[in-house]
């Protein structure tokens, strides 16, 4: 008995029904779904990456300065003459190409200091090369805080490490031992500069972390003087002692200089110890390769 009602079991009635909203929708291929999802994800990542790139660009834009701004004839003369004397003195003890490469790394190291000095709105004084030791950049204006001073101190070893890595890569391309020697010398001098001793970069950096690091650096220096006494080491000890004295006097006159936030201390500590570990590894690897080549 037919009730006249439309039921899904009736083929005639089912054909008479209007098509539902999903019946004529084209089925999406799984690959299309994957590609559209991937496109959305990539677009999101690119937006975030663009924001990160802008932040990084804005950060480094502050360091796009002329490190030699304000340098006159006297400053360039002192730099040029001291560089020439350093090359001449060291060339009496080592091959000239090795000396030239080493002095080049020292120059980049000191330029790193000068860049951050100018970026902080300060003025650099003299750029001086010191035979068998390295170089130095003096300051006309003093840093406003230990944190700024630490950033200036870090800039030199970072720039010098980068230059040494470039020379190391040249060695890997050419297989010429000369470049390995230059890179090793660069790693060594930048590592030594990170010792927490007053007059070295490490002394300036460690002041923003904790001045107790100076005790360790002073102990290393005294040990070296006792084991291998020589006039140069005695002069360094006197200079370090004078630097520590100046720091004590400055802390009394300007207590705010050493006001460093926890976040700033952590940042400087991570950068400092990370660089020390990296340079220690590179120094060990480079010197080991040199020893193998000598055999």
Biggest sheet: strands, sense, closure?
A: 2 strands, antiparallel
Q: Give the number of DSSP strands.
A: 2
Taking pLDDT < 50 over at least 5 consecutive residues as the criterion, the unreliable ranges are 54-60
Taking strands numbered 1, 2, ... along the chain, how are they ordered across the largest sheet? Answer: 1-2
* Rg (CA only): 31 Å
Described by the principal axes of the CA atoms, the overall outline is globular
Task: Please tell me the overall pLDDT.
Answer: 79
Structural class assignment: mainly alpha
Quick description:
This protein is mostly helical and 295 residues long. It has helices spanning 11-16, 30-61, 73-91, 96-119, 146-174, 177-193, 201-206, 213-227, 231-253, 262-294, and strands at 124-130, 134-139.
């Amino acid at each position: 008995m037919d009730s006249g009602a439309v039921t899904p079991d009736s083929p005639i009635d089912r054909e008479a029904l209007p098509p539902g909203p999903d019946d004529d929708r084209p089925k999406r291929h799984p690959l299309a779904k994957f590609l559209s999802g991937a496109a959305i994800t990539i677009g999101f990542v690119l937006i975030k990456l663009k924001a990160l790139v802008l932040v990084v660009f804005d950060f480094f834009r502050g360091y796009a300065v002329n490190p030699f701004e304000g340098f006159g004839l006297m400053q360039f003369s002192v730099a040029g003459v001291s560089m020439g004397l350093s090359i001449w003195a060291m060339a009496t003890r080592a091959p000239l190409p090795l000396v030239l490469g080493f002095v080049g790394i020292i120059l980049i190291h000191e330029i790193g200091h000068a860049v951050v000095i100018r970026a902080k709105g300060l003025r650099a004084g003299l750029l001086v090369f010191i035979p068998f030791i390295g170089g130095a950049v003096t300051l006309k204006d003093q840093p406003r805080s230990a944190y700024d001073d630490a950033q200036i101190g870090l800039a030199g070893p970072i720039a010098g490490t980068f230059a040494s890595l470039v020379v190391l890569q040249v060695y890997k391309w050419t297989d010429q031992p000369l470049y390995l020697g230059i890179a090793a010398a660069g790693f060594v001098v930048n590592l030594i500069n990170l010792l927490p001793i007053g007059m070295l970069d490490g002394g300036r950096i460690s002041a923003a972390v904790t001045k107790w690091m100076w005790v360790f650096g002073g102990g290393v220096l005294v040990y070296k003087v006792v084991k291998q006494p020589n006039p140069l080491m005695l002069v360094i000890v006197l200079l370090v002692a004078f630097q520590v004295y100046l720091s004590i006097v400055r802390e009394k006159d300007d207590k705010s200089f050493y006001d460093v936030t926890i976040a700033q201390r952590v940042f400087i500590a991570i950068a400092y110890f990370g660089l020390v570990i990296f340079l220690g590894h590179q120094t060990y690897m480079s010197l080991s390769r040199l020893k193998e080549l000598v055999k």
